[in-house]
Amino acid sequence: MKGERTMAAVNIGLLVFETLAKLAPKLYDYVKSLIDGGADAAELAAKPVEVFVSFGGGDGKAITIQQDIESNMLDPDAE
Amino acid sequence: MKNIRPLLAVALAVSLAGCSGCSDTPYKRIATAYHTLDLFKALVEDFDGAVTKYAAAKQTECLKTHRPKTKEFDACVMPAVRLLRAWTGKKNGKPTGKGVLPAIQSTQRAAAIELKAVLAYIKSHEAECGKKDAPKNCTGDWQGLLKPSVCALMEIIDRAVKLGAYDVTTNRTYLMVKAAIAGFTCNR
Predict the structure, then answer these.
(1) Minimal CA separation from B81 to chain A, in Å
(2) Contact B153, B107 (CB under 8 A)
(3) How many CB atoms lie within 10 A of CB B95?
(4) pLDDT tens for each residue of A33-43
(5) What's the pLDDT at A14?
(6) How many other C-beta atoms lie within 10 A of the C-beta of residue B180?
(7) What's the confidence (pLDDT) of residue B79?
(8) B166: which of B108, B134, B160, B183 fits an S-S bond (Cβ 3.0–4.6 Å)?
(9) Closest CA to B55 of A77, A64, A58, A60
(10) Cβ-count burial A8-19 (b if 16+ within 10 Å, e if not)
(11) What pLDDT shows up at residue A21?
(12) Distance, CA of B127 to CA of A20 (rounded, Å)
């Protein structure tokens, strides 16, 4: 009895979802993209600059201290 | 709002039921790749800061015992200078073509471009990319692009650890990157 009820609920759910998909394809695409990860991937791809190592457009701090040290060396080309 | 809740619950349940393989969709693989790139970026920035701190401390220490522009000062700072050169790829202002940082910067950019192309391909070939034996266009080779520079990063980190310039034992970002690249086999 309980199983039949569940099946009936699932069938009704399917019917509702299919109707929803036909009536509102955009909503269907949105729900689907949330579930299959498409929304995450699209959001991450939209801000690729954040995965580049750019130090906010600079060269990083190490290069600055290197220049400072080498300027204090007798032979900055020494190995 | 109360009326829409059961509807959404049913829609979600049905979708999930019909989506047993969704834990590894082509989109989720791309999202994982982006998160991995983000982790590398965080590690690179953290390491750059650590190398800077170590070199600055070394210079201060050497200036306490030696005058600048002397052979003794040069010898004192040399371990830090070698590490800096291997990292920045510059020697006395000139590019050496061997720096780990510039290599990572260019491969990160290449991998991000590759991922964008893969995402566009997946969007237009969803059914094909959803299959188990999906073609290479659906996954791309971002790992292959990153591998040489990530291996070089791990190598220079090992070097910095030996010098006492970097601590990895409690470094969460390092440990996460290490786990993320568990599949990479670096030749060392």
Answers:
(1) 7
(2) no
(3) 11
(4) 777 778 888 88
(5) 74
(6) 19
(7) 97
(8) B160
(9) A64
(10) eeeeebeeebee
(11) 67
(12) 22
Taking contacts as CB-CB distances below 8 angstroms, the residues of chain B near A60 are 45, 48, 52, 88, 101
Whether B90 and A77 lie within 8 Å, measured CB to CB: no
Contact B49 A33 (CB under 8 A): no
* Residue B183 one-letter amino acid: G
Residue B20: per-residue pLDDT: 43
In angstroms, the CA A32 to CA A50 distance is: 26
**Structure tokens given for B163:** 């010098």
* Partner residue facing A41 (CB), from B10, B109, B119: B119
d(Cα B39, Cα B173) in Å, to the nearest integer?
Answer: 7
Give average pLDDT by consecutive 10-residue segment, chain B, 188 residues: 50 46 75 89 94 97 97 97 97 95 92 91 91 88 87 94 95 89 69
Q: In terms of C-beta distances under 8 Å and separation of at least 24 residues, what long-range contacts does B17-21 make, across chains too?
A: B17/A10, B19/A35, B19/A36, B21/B130
Cross-chain residue pair B52–A65, CB shorter than 8 Å: yes
Q: Which of B34, B48, B91 sits opposite A62 (nearest CB)?
A: B48
**Distance of CA B90 to CAs B40, B101, B102, B149, Å?**
21, 10, 10, 17
Task: Tell me which residue has tokens 């690179």.
Answer: B44
The SS3 call for residue B90 is strand
Q: What is the dihedral of CA B76, B82, B88, B94, to 10 degrees?
A: 90
Q: Do the beta carbons of residue A12 and residue B10 sit within 8 Å?
A: yes
Compute the distance between CA of residue A29 and CA of residue B150 in angstroms, rounded to an integer.
37
